[in-house]
């Protein structure tokens, strides 16, 4: 039905509406980059997709038990005939596994993918602790 009323389709109408709201209220959305965490015997490997960002646009830091990846992809001011690329701030915080070391982390950027190598320390497995349930 909407396609008959608006020849550009629903997705373009929705996108135009969202962009108008963003311009009106000035609140830019913080984007969460896609990622994956691999477990290896002596380390974890976190991969975060950050296309279009260079090392100068990225910050990787530890905050307590969290690894934070933050950056910004800025839009260049120029006349556009089509714009589907997403610009803005990215932010993602990852809770480190219990056996992750906070020393010796390494971050590398390869082909738009940030790779963070997180060393592991060998710890004995902690047995579960049973908590008694009392009637209130």
From TrEMBL:
Pfam families: HSP20. Keywords: Stress response. GO terms for biological process: response to heat. SUPFAM superfamilies: HSP20-like chaperones. The keyword Metal-binding does not apply. The keyword Transcription regulation does not apply. Residues 25-136 form the SHSP domain. InterPro entries: A-crystallin/Hsp20_dom (IPR002068), HSP20-like_chaperone (IPR008978), HSP21-like (IPR044587). PROSITE patterns: SHSP. PANTHER family: 26.5 KDA HEAT SHOCK PROTEIN, MITOCHONDRIAL (PTHR46733:SF3). Belongs to the small heat shock protein (HSP20) family. This is Heat shock protein 20. It comes from Thermus brockianus.
